[in-house]
Amino acid sequence: MARAFIHERTGVSPAERQRTDLSAKNFAILFFLAAIWGASFLFMRISTPVIGPYVTSELRVLLAALALYIFSIFIKKRPNLLVKWKQFMILGAINAAIPFTLISAAELHINASLAAILNATTPLFTALVAWGWLRERIDWKKLSGLVSGLLGVVILVGWSPIELDKPLLYSIIFSLLAALSYAFGGIYASKYFQGEKPLDMAIGQQFGASIVLLPFAIATVPSSMPGMDVILSILGLSIVCTSFAYLLYFELINNVGAEKTLNVTLLVPIFGVVWGAAFLHEAIHATTLIGLAIILLSVILVTKKGTGSRRVKAAGD
Hints:
Layout: E1 5-9, H1 14-17, H2 24-51, H3 53-74, H4 85-106, H5 112-119, H6 122-133, H7 140-158, H8 166-192, H9 198-219, H10 228-261, H11 264-280, H12 286-303, E2 311-315
Antiparallel strand pairs: 1-2
Helix pairs in contact: 2-3, 2-5, 2-10, 2-11, 3-4, 3-9, 3-10, 4-8, 4-9, 5-11, 6-8, 7-12, 11-12
């Protein structure tokens, strides 16, 4: 899931206060967005074992970039990507190419449910990166959130009935590194893309990621044509879970503001677990639910608005 952008605020503007009403329509969009981003882990789990992490990630970002670019032409808001092409390359690498590939590689050995839950640790890593990079203060609520998040991961992994062998351990590390990469990507976006149009950022990020991934994808192109299930998964991953999801994300930002939109972070892993169980018949263990609950609690503590303090917030897959 794609984590799309970081929103840095010193306060909430009057205009944003007027957009914080989570109506029935916006609530439905929020759930739909979470369901779509949760499905991305399902699609990666289907496609990666067949065509590999690099090709899966390359097709995801390239098709998404093309779809968004065509959309920008249709609405007559075509972006000028050459002005900040270097920044888009960096953003595409750390906020898409690296985390997408790491999650895809992890899902060679772990199920979609576990990958989705581990990805929910992104706000926890964001708090740590903001502390180290932006000197963001960590108060007792954030600290307790970080500690409980670590506890949730330990319960999720250490008490799981699944045998903790080397491939599984590496996959868990890959998933957590992907969350860390999202955190760096979001902070980078907040520092170097102030005032940039969100649609331009989405298109530039995906094109940048596609360039970074291209040589790796070419080197690992499968020798045979994948089946229809993989093709449909790639289309769902790129067009639905990336292109269309970004448009929903922007719609929510415009309608209710960043604060309310952040709630999607809490819903994505829930849908990841549901889709994994429904379509891949993944088992849901008690430790899965306990670990998920503790991690989501830690996210609430870390992202809870602090009085009078600057905060950094993440949203998206």
